[in-house]
Amino acid sequence: MPRPKRCRQICQYPDYWSFAPLSDAKEEVVELALDELETIRLIDYFSLSQVDCAEQMGVSRTTVTSMYNRARKKIAESIIGGKKLEINGGNCKVKKSSVYTLCNKKGKNIMRVAIPYENGEVFQHFGHTEKFKVYDVENGVINNSTIIETQGEGHGAIAGFLQTNEVNVLICGGIGDGAVKALLAANIDIYAGALGLADDFANAFAEGKLVSASEPTCNCSGHHDHNQEGNCEHDHVNSHGCSCHGDDGGCCH
User: Fold this and answer.
1) How confident is the model at residue 239 (pLDDT cuts 50, 70, 90)?
2) Would you say the pTM of this structure is higher than 0.85?
3) By C-alpha distance, which of 155, 172, 179 is closest to 241?
4) Which residue among 205, 207, 224, 230 is buried most deeply as judged by most CB within 10 Å?
C-alpha cells in the first residue's frame, strides 16, 4: 500500500490562475498544481534554496526537488508549446502563519530592510511603532515589500521581533540608546534620523545612496521639548541622521 502524501504548506493562493498566448493557443491545457507553483515562487522568485523551501512547505528536500522539476517542465511545455497554463489542484493547504511574521524566508543574497511605517511615511518613534514596511533588496533592486504588524512592547521586544523576521537593516526616525544597543546586539545595522517617505529611503538604500547613522536620535536629556504628558517632541537634526543623496547632490526626501 503506497504511503499517503503529506499535505504541503503554501503561503498564499495565486493572484492569477491561468495564462495563455494572446492568439493561436492550442486546445491542450497544462495544469500546474498549487504546491508546484509554490516551489517556483519560493525558489525562483524569492531565491530560497531547496532546503529552505522544503522547511517552509513542511516536506522533504527530495519532495521539493521533484515538485520543482515538474513545475519547470510544465511551464516550459506551456511556453514552448503555446498551450494554456492553468493553476489547479495539489495536495496542499494555506499556511496559517501569524500576521506578525513574514511568510517568506529570506534568501541568502537578500538584504532585508525594515522601516517603522505609518501612512506611507517613516514613523518617527521607533519604540511605539505598530507596523513596519519590510523590503527585500537584492543586487540593488527591491524585489519584494510587505507590511507587518508588531506584537511586542518596548525596544527590546521589537528588536527580537525584527531578528525573528530576519531583518538585516533598520531605517528609522527617532530612536533611543536602549533600542540602538538591542538592535546592534541582534546584528541589525541602523540608519537613524530618516524623515519622509518610507519607499524613498528604501530605494536610496537599495541604490547605495543612504548614509549610515547609528547614534541615538531620541535622548530626552538632549535637544528635545517635552509636552505636558512628558513625551519628547523631536527636533531631528540632519547631522545626526541618515541622509540620501541623488546624483545631483539633492536629498531624496
Assistant:
1) very low
2) no
3) 172
4) 205
